[in-house]
Amino acid sequence: MAKNKVIINKNFCKGCGICVSVCPAKILRIGEDFKVEVENEEKCMGCGMCEVFCPDFAIVIKKEVKV
């Protein structure tokens, strides 16, 4: 069973919202601090779209495989 961990570096994030718009699982949102944050991480598909399209390299998807 795979579980995905979404890691956001808030020091790099400028809150552009690109990651929010490209996430097919809709697990990202812009928070009160105008930076991206994760909702419902368990629904992350691990597609990496947010990581690929982030212009600031602020998001990393870590995939854990548990057996």
Question: What's the helix and strand layout?
Answer:
Layout: E1 2-8, H1 18-22, E2 28-30, E3 36-38, H2 49-53, E4 59-65
Antiparallel strand pairs: 1-4, 2-3
Strand content: 25-35%
Query: Compute the gyration radius: what is it?
Result: 11 Å
Which structural class best describes the helix and strand composition? alpha+beta
Morphology: globular
Topology, number of strands: 4
| Fraction of helical residues | 10-25%
Strand order of the largest sheet: 1-4
By CATH, the architecture is named 2-Layer Sandwich
How many structural domains? 1
Give the distance, in angstroms, between the N- and C-terminal Cα atoms.
6 Å
How many alpha or pi helices? 2
Provide the succession of SSEs.
EHEEHE
Low-confidence stretches: none
CATH topology: Alpha-Beta Plaits
| Largest β-sheet summary | 2 strands, antiparallel
CATH hierarchy, class: Alpha Beta
Q: Taking all residues together, what is the mean pLDDT?
A: 93
Task: Describe what you observe in this structure.
The protein is an alpha+beta fold. The protein has a single domain, classed as Alpha-Beta Plaits (2-Layer Sandwich). The protein is 15% helix and 30% strand. It has 2 helices and 4 strands; from the N terminus they run βαββαβ. The chain has helices spanning 18-22, 49-53, and strands spanning 2-8, 28-30, 36-38, 59-65. The N and C termini lie close together (6 Å). The mean pLDDT is 93. Its EC number is 1.2.7.3. It is an enzyme of class 1 (oxidoreductase). Keywords: 4Fe-4S, Iron, Iron-sulfur, Metal-binding, Oxidoreductase.
